[in-house]
């Protein structure tokens, strides 16, 4: 029986791609580099902000100094504009409420930096009492390293890993679950899709939020 349900944020709980694209394109334009169409960002995201900026920059402009400069512009813009277009995926608010009411522990494990992770979770899901909300933190390796999952386990006290389900939309998430030794569920409505998820052999792949409740409850 599952007791702890851990969710990825971008591409799983929230569709954040438009705000991410707008802020990166703003930063690229300010720095004199070419912008990208919004759909290009589906393959840029997933490994944290620094990697996002690196992927968006021209290949010959990916020095540490340039990445840091564009990243700084991005953070300033995104902090002020990260709730303009972002929205929960269909059925997600209802799913979280049902899980909360049923007594499950809920947590968020994201590669988005901590400040923005906390802001978005509070803004869109302020009525949900999450046991932990972790984004990318200083001196903590990003997913697929399992450290974020291990930190949530320590915080919640759910040490039996068979009682944990990790839910995400990308191969990064599926590998994170595998590295942490917990069961994984892939969602197809996010940034990557069924083929990438299936290549990682998760225990479950779902197309709709309500399917997650059925998996957890065993119905």
Detailed description of the structure:
The chain is 44% helix and 16% strand. The chain has two domains: 4-15 and 87-217, 3-Layer(aba) Sandwich (Rossmann fold), CATH 3.40.50.1000; 17-81, Orthogonal Bundle (DNA polymerase, domain 1), CATH 1.10.150.240. The protein has nine helices and eight strands. The mean pLDDT is 96. The radius of gyration is 17 Å and the shape is globular. The chain is α/β, with parallel strands linked by helices. The strands form two sheets. It has a six-stranded parallel sheet, sandwiched between helices. Helix 4 (92-101) runs parallel beside helix 9.
In short:
The protein is 44% helix and 16% strand.
CATH superfamily of the largest domain: HAD superfamily/HAD-like
Q: How are the strands ordered across the major sheet?
A: 5-4-1-6-7-8
**Structural category:** alpha/beta
- Count of helical regions: 9
CATH architecture designation of the largest domain: 3-Layer(aba) Sandwich
**SSE order, one letter for each helix or strand:** EEHHHEHEHEHEHEHEH
Number of domains: 2
How many β-strand runs? Answer: 8
Q: Level of helix content?
A: 40-55%
Largest sheet: 6 strands, parallel
- What amount of the residues lies in strands? 15-25%
Q: In terms of quaternary structure, what is this? A: single chain
